[in-house]
Amino acid sequence: MLSAQVRQNTRTISSRTFDKMPESQGKRGAFIVLEGCDRTGKTTQCKTLVDKLMQANIRAQYMNFPDRSTQCGQLINGYLTRKDDFTDEGIHLLFTLNRWERMKEMEKLLKAGVNLIVDRYSYSGVAFSSAKGLDMEWCKAPESGLLKPDLVILLTLSMEALARRGGFGDERYEVAGFQKKVIERYGMLKDDRYWKAIDADKTFDDVTAVLYEEVLRAIEHSGDKPLEKLW
Ligand code: NYM
Ligand code: MG
């Protein structure tokens, strides 16, 4: 069962109102990230988890990276859709800056008791850039000091299961050969102290059920812990 402090009145919090929110007298929110290669269903699962939490009167907010709505996010979108080009190093730093842009807001929300369900984070940054050949330690360096998640859930799919899902989009990186390299990089980043790998090759509802259990457990265990920083 969740503790009373975690069950607070739900309201949707727009990113514009976060700076007016008082710091929570109770427990802080949990910072939970979903990671995985493209086509694993992260976005829909994240949104479903937020809906389920809100229905249970647990405050939660969805966030995603890249956040294409910021100025920096528009440059990233131009790159992903092949309208613009950057060096591998340059685009890596833009993805990182896109996270730094939202750090104050995320810290404020977490301290106010809002649980963040985040669709990709620094691990995507390092996995995708290092899969292109950039040095992994170089990729991690500018991420250092960002908030560290309480839980990273890695949604896994075998190459066969990924192929069965068919149809990658047209964006950069959306080809099977590259995704295979990304999966290997996730394997190198995985830290069992706060990562859980979950097989996504099940029905959508079955995956949601497993994820929801993990999310509730993380919320229950993170509320009294200080926020930490990455790497
Ligand atoms: N991606 C995402 C990166 O290369 N670096 C990052 O830091 C992040 C957050 O962007 N193929 C890549 C992974 C995806 C692409 O993400 C777009 P999405 O979740 O499909 O919008
Ligand atoms: Mg995608």
Automatic annotation (TrEMBL):
Record's keyword annotation contains Kinase: yes
EC class: transferase
PROSITE patterns for this protein: THYMIDYLATE_KINASE
Domain of life: Eukaryota
Positions of region (Disordered): 1-22
Entry keywords, A to Z: ATP-binding, Kinase, Nucleotide biosynthesis, Nucleotide-binding, Transferase
DNA-binding as UniProt keyword: no
GO molecular function: ATP binding; dTMP kinase activity; nucleoside diphosphate kinase activity
Single Gene Ontology BP annotation: dUDP biosynthetic process
A Gene Ontology term for the protein's cellular component: nucleus
The EC number(s) this enzyme carries: 2.7.4.9
InterPro entries: P-loop_NTPase, Thymidylate_kin-like_dom, Thymidylate_kin_CS, Thymidylate_kinase
Biological or metabolic pathway of the protein: Pyrimidine metabolism; dTTP biosynthesis
Biased composition (Polar residues): 1-16
Thymidylate kinase-like domain: residues covered: 34-207
Signal sequence range: none
PANTHER family the UniProt entry points to: THYMIDYLATE KINASE (PTHR10344)
Similarity comment: family membership: Belongs to the thymidylate kinase family.
Protein name stated in the entry: dTMP kinase
Organism for this UniProt entry: Anopheles merus
